[in-house]
Amino acid sequence: MPAHKSIGGSRYSEQGEGEAIVFLGEDAARLADGFAGSFRAIALDISADDPVAQVRRLLDDLGISSANLVGKGRGAALALAVAAAFPHRVRRIALLETVPEHDATAPVLCPALIVTGETHRDRAEALARRLQRGRGAVAAAGEVDQVLGAFLAERLSSFDNRELRSAFGSFMTGVTIVTTAGIDGQPRGFTANSFTSVSLEPPLLMICIGKQAASMEVFRHARGFAVNILSEAQKDISVLFASKRPDKFDVAEWRAGPFGNPLIEGSAAWFDCARYQVIDAGDHIVLMGHIEAFSYSDANPLGYARGHYITLGLEQAAVNAASSASRTVVGAILENDNRLVLLPDASRPNGLVLPEVGRHGHSGSASQLHDLLQREGMDATLGFLFAVFENPGTREQCIYYRGEALLHARGRTVLADFEDIPWDRLPDEATRSMLRRYAAERKLGRFKVYSGDHRQGTVKAVD
User: Fold this and answer.
1) Same structural domain for residues 321 and 456?
2) pLDDT (tens digit, 9 = 90+) per residue, 193-215?
3) Contact assessment for residue 96 and residue 77, using Cβ atoms and an 8 Å cutoff
4) Angle, CA of 40, 45 and 51, to the nearest 5°
5) CB under 8 Å to 45, separation ≥6 — which residues?
6) pTM of the predicted model, to two decimals?
7) 282 in the Ramachandran plot: left (φ > 0), alpha (ψ -120 to 50) or beta?
C-alpha cells in the first residue's frame, strides 16, 4: 500500500497512471491498490465537514479536470452528491453494495453503476431509473471487483453531452408522439423526434426511447406501438406528452388504431405498427416497427430544431410578406436589461420607433436590420418571429423578430420600462398593438407568433 500524502487539508494515497479514479468510503485503499495497474488510483480519507467540496478541492489540487468516482458505504452517497453538484468534473460513478437516497431534482448526467446483492436488487434498479444513465447490477461479494472492472473498462466518449445534444439539434426534425396500448391495455405515450423511416419492403420504421424513461419497459415488451406525426397546431399536445402528467390520455383526444395502439386526433400523419425488433443502443433502445396501417393529411407538420418548435406555415407567411410587391418593413423587439430598446424617429419630432428597416424607401431585409443594429452600437441576437402582418395604414408588409441586445455604445438608443412605454411617441396603432401583446406575453413567459393584419389574424404559440 502506498504512503498517505496531504494536500489542501485532505489525506490521500495515489498510485498508477492513466485515467483518474477516486475511491471513497469503505475499502477505498484496497480498491485503489487493485486498480492501480490500469488507472491513476486515488484513495481519499473523507474528513471534511463538507465532503462534496473536499472532493472537488482534491481534484483541483491534483490538477484533475474530471475523474471516475467509486463509493462504498458512506462513500456511495458522496460519489452521487459530487456527480450531481459538479457534473463536468465526474466521468462516471460506481456505487458498491450501497443504495443511497437521491433527490430527483438534482440530475446526474454521467453513467452510473449500482452494484448490490440480491437483497437490494429492487432498490438498486429503482435508483438506476431515477438517474439519467444509471444501471443496476447484482453481484456476490467476491464478484464486485470484476463487475466494477468491466464497467470502468467501457469506452467513454470525450464529448460534452450538452454540446453533442446541441450539435444533434442542428438537424431540424418533425415532432412525434409515440404511443402504445401496452401489455396491460393501458395507453402510454411520450414525445419524440428520434424517428425515421427504415424500409419500404418490408414497411419498417424506428424510434428511440431512453433507458431512463419511466415507460421504457412497457414499450420494450409491448406487441406494438404507433407513431403520430404532429401538425403545427399541436404544440400543446407535444408539451403535454413530454411532461410527467399521469392523465395525458384524459386530456388529449385519441382513438384506437387498426392495430390497437392510440392515435392522436389532428395529427399530420400516423403509423400503427407491430413490434419488429428491439435493439440495445447505449443509453437508449431502438424500437423497430412493422407498419400495419397508416394515414396522412396535407396539414403542415410541427418542426423542431435547436431546442425550439418551428411552425412552417408561419415561416412561410414571412417569406410571402418579404416577396410581395408591397414595401417590406423588417424590425425587432429587443430587450436590454429587461427594458425595451427604441430609437429616435427621424421623420417625427420626439417620435420613437423600434429598430427597423424599410419603412422609408426600399424594402428592408434581415441583413439590413443587422447592419442597422451594428451602426447603433448593438450586438443583438434575433430569436423567433414574433409578428407577420400588413399595416393597413401604409399597406406595408411587416415582419418583426424578438431578441436580446447588448449595448456597446449608448448612442441614440432609448430604453423604456415595459410598465411605462411611451405609447404616444410610437409611429402608429399597428406598432402599439403589437407591443401591447408583447408586453402581456412576456409576463407569462410564453410568446406566440401573430400572422394577419394589426386588427385581425391568427396567433400561434411557438414556445
Assistant:
1) yes
2) 888 889 888 999 999 998 878 88
3) no
4) 100
5) 4, 10, 11, 12
6) 0.47
7) left
Average pLDDT in the 10-28 region? 93
For 222-263, how does the pLDDT look when each residue is reduced to its tens digit (9 = 90+)? 999 999 999 888 888 888 888 888 889 999 999 999 999 999
194: which 3 cell numbers? 428520434
Nearest residue to 198 via CA among 139, 305, 98, 271: 271
How many angstroms separate the CA atoms of 216 and 226, rounded?
15
Helix (H) or strand (E) holding 57: helix 51-61
Q: Can you give the residue range of the structural domain that contains 406?
A: 308-461
Contact between 67 and 89 (Cβ < 8 Å): yes
- CA dist 64 and 442 (Å) reads 43
For 118, which DSSP code?
A: G
Joined grid coordinates for residue 20: 483518474
* Angle 289-294-296 from CA coordinates, rounded to 5°: 130
Q: What cell numbers appear for 92 in the block?
A: 462516471
**280: domain CATH number?**
2.30.110.10
272: nearest Cα among 226, 304, 241, 239? 226
Q: Are residues 17 and 108 in the same domain?
A: yes
Number of Cβ within a 10 Å radius of residue 397:
25
Q: What average pLDDT does the chain have?
A: 84
